[in-house]
Sequence to fold (443 residues):
Amino acid sequence: MTFASLPMILYVLPLFVILTAIVPAQWKACVLALGGLAAVWMTGGFPALILLLISVSATWLIIRLQPKKSDAHHHRAELWLYAGIGIQAILLLLGRLMLDDLTIVPLVMCAMQGAECMSDHANNRFHKPALFSFFCYQCDMTRLPAGPVLRYETAEQLRAARQVTAHRVGEGASGCIRGLFQLVCLALPMFRMQDALKTGTVLHSSADAVFAALSFYFSLYYGMKGTAQIGQGLALMLGYRYPDSFDSPVLADSLHDFRRRFLTPLYDWTERVLYLENGVTDAGAYFARMSLVLGGLGIIFGRGGAGLLWGVLAAVLLTAEHVRRGKKRYTLPTGARRVLVGATVLFGVGLLRGRSIIECFAFYAALLGINGIMLSDTAAYLMRENWLILLLCSAGMFPLRKLLHRLPTGKPLRFVRTAVKGAAELLMLLWAYSELLSRYLRS
Fold:
């Protein structure tokens, strides 16, 4: 079972949201944590649940035993920190071998939050939490499937600032509908399309390679964004307001800007933990830390060596841009920079989608036009069959809702805008549930 399945959307998530809403305040975090464990168990099975519990328990135990940095215990604190990070890395590698691409995301979330907690504790910025509070922080159902990555203190502040209002409930329901539509109606068709676009069999020409890279990017973007938006919407209905995970990456005019806009909480985590932008001026240190993060993500979400190569090459480009920042250079127009960044991202997608280095070479050979430039018959058929989904995916890359809010705020126009938004979200909900029901009945 996946997160985008009818039992999960129709039964599991609503059940724990209702239980969280009706239980006393001191038990709400516990119910959300149990909901997170239930979601992990239903999507990843028993291995995912065991790995998650080991990750949370190991992090808490390291924090309890780890001394804080001082003149007497400076090296001991670092050794405990490196040991804890090593344990999390081993658990992630085991998860990569035992779990699917998307079911490993909760384990990655816990590892990142745990690494930050251990680092903060070693540097005297974090007090030892109780096991119950730490468990609720790590396994929160609204953040575990796709983020955002929050500091322990930030999560506690958001929990203390909980406020349920009619506006928040309506805004949260709207976010859940949009997230469900993106996950079910946009991401899943793109994932299915990837199975039909195999390098070396169907994928031959330059147009095939561009089409495959674009559909793979759509599947990643809407899969992660839709899942995160569902969790954010559920949290908002319960009174918790989380930061947005995406900020229109299509508008990025540099690779650093793209990294900031694509999974913004992950960008904030790297800044807090690795001090990349403000604390690191040496190019070698910047490249090493960036390679550690991106190479690890490439191994987890890519295909072994190809994913690692993607991480290293991305670190090279980001390091070059970091070194050149602030120096006088010829500046392209904003539109040209955005096109260049988009082309660079799609060019790198070939390494993430390849199942081996050889398949990656075949992809780039096709991209260079070794076998021609026109669409193959199979790719053209897939494009004709999914033209509406591809059009919606392309339109969804742009901040349409922000543009809609910039319209004049007169009473008639406000009524029309509200009616159009309500009708669109109703259509999204019906489309998503019809797709979920048809997939459930077919299975």
